[in-house]
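re: that complex we talked abt at group meeting.

here r the seqs, copy pasted straight from the sheet so there may be weird spacing, ignore it
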Amino acid sequence: MGALGAVLAPFAEMAASPLFLAEVLIGGVAAGLLYALVALGFVLIFKASGVFNFAQGVMVLFAALTLVGLMDRGVPALLALALTIAVMILLAFAIERVVLRPLVNQAPIILFMATIGLTFFLEGFGEMVWGANVKRLDVGIPDTSFKVAGLLVNRLELAAALTAAVLVTVLAIFFQKTRIGRALRAVADDHEAALSIGIPLKTIWVVVWSVSGLVALAAGIMWGAKSGVQFSLSLIALKALPVLILGGFTSVPGAIVGGIMIGIGEKVAEVYWGPLVGGAIENWFAYVMALGFLLVRPQGLFGERIIERV
Amino acid sequence: MIYREAGQFKSTYASDQAIFPIPQDRVFVLLVAAVALLVPAVASEYWLQAVLIPVLVYAMAAIGLDLLTGYAGQLSLGTGGFMAVGAYSAFKLTTAFPDVNIIVVFLASGLVASAVGIVFGIPSLRIKGFYLAVATLAAQFFLVWLFNKVAWFVNYAPSGTITAPPRSVLGVMVTGPEATPGARYLVALILVAVFALAAKNLVRGRVGRTWMAIRDRDIAAEIIGVRPLSAKLSAFAVSSFYCGVAGAELVFLYLGSAETLAFDIQLSFLVLFMVIIGGLGSILGSFLGAAFILLLPIFLTNAPHAVGLKLPVALAKQLELMAFGALIVFFLIVEPHGLARLWQISKEKLRLWPFPH
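got the structure back, here u go
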């Protein structure tokens, strides 16, 4: 017994109260979907431009801040939403023109650094324009729970789940069926080949940064409604990284599945095994989980198989 | 004119392969060394404490990360974690063995960090690029969490902080509250000078060449007989050693006391910035990058005062953040190969001056 018993005891606990386990799982799925929404923005940009966009987290924050800031100034909700969308698209244009275009053909790590620079800039800018205090975002869905078959389900989490599902479906259709979606996939496949058959790279980049700006807005609304719009929001970008690893950098469904797996994994670990080692393992468990996973499958669950030639 | 090598003939291999093959460079380096040694006599306490000591300490960390990322091509975001290992093991070692020379303690804690680095370097055998970067984040978060949670590492101090105890070298106090900034500066200077020289020689030799072969094309390197296992793990070991020593210096020579918050993910990014702004794959660049990244915020804070602008504190902070981000992007666009490359270009220009070609 001893140490091994202590490590195995949580399984008995799970079996003893399946209802509690189910609630933990639901909480995990809800958290995971929010991670997935952030990861989705990463995947879109990485697919189309090979840029590892560290600024995705701060884009989530910036979108939420803009929306809340506008609503606080008395702009009606729908108009504020439209304006925020416009701002995110404008931001995509600006990033393409100022940051990406001069850095075309640079090593990936240089572009990665540039997006970290962008993170600093957007953080300062957002704070300057909208102020640094925590803001409440009211989306009209109460943060309360109702019972389904004896289980507590949070309305807000349910709404987040539905939003994520709708977004993924729309994006999947967008990627597979539309002209721009096909162009996006061509660019993701091979920049030069796409250019040579006349796909305008600049337009594609603006489109893809706009789309991930909108995904960031959706994520920002959901996170903001749950825990207030504040600067810790930009840190969830870091939580999206293990999600990416698990799902693969290039897969849209991977981001969703990876997000849910990470969400469930870290909630279960925190609730059942956390007390054994003093708690707060949520901070690093996701990374270790992703790391263990990478050793078995280096390209992630749904990532493209990495074939290397000399 | 002044920087011309006409008439300088190398008649032995040794003189041809010297680190500084041109006499002007040697004179320049000696001058810099002399100035650096004389600085404590003239510099104010503020300059030593707020600028020079941190630049030297961070330069040490930047050299460490540069060996791993710039020379061996393994992107790491775990620098803060490895620095924490160095700092906490230095604290544990020097409180357990108070009689051991503090320099020996620094080196020993570097070795501890090195061992931890090898463990977290193992995934690099399977994964590379950004996947590896995320994997090293596991090291960052796990190590910081560990030092935060296990009270043994801070000798059960209720505050959870580690404080540099007073220790002396050759009869001079170098750590603790009584140590003068000048003494701490000299220790940091000598350590970083010795280890920069060691790093420079390391990357010129067999080990450095295997690292660069792995960086440039790992599969090709493997085919010509470079063993990825030993090359990658040795890069992680040496890099973590430097980071560990830098972490120990950070607490013992610069901050005086610290908690785990000092080693969070921001520190990893800061060091990565230094390496990239300085120039990947250049030891000189690590120094330039460290100086640039540390001086930029000081400059940005003081610039509005200098021109007579009175900004509210919050606004000044936000503008500083924006300017910092914008300047990073600007520098990457102007010179993606970093400050070291600018230095090289200006040397090339000096060689031809006053002629254009």
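couple things i noticed - Residues 25-296 of chain A form a domain with the ABC transporter involved in vitamin B12 uptake, BtuC fold (CATH 1.10.3470). Residues 11 and 17 of chain A are 10 Å apart (CA to CA).
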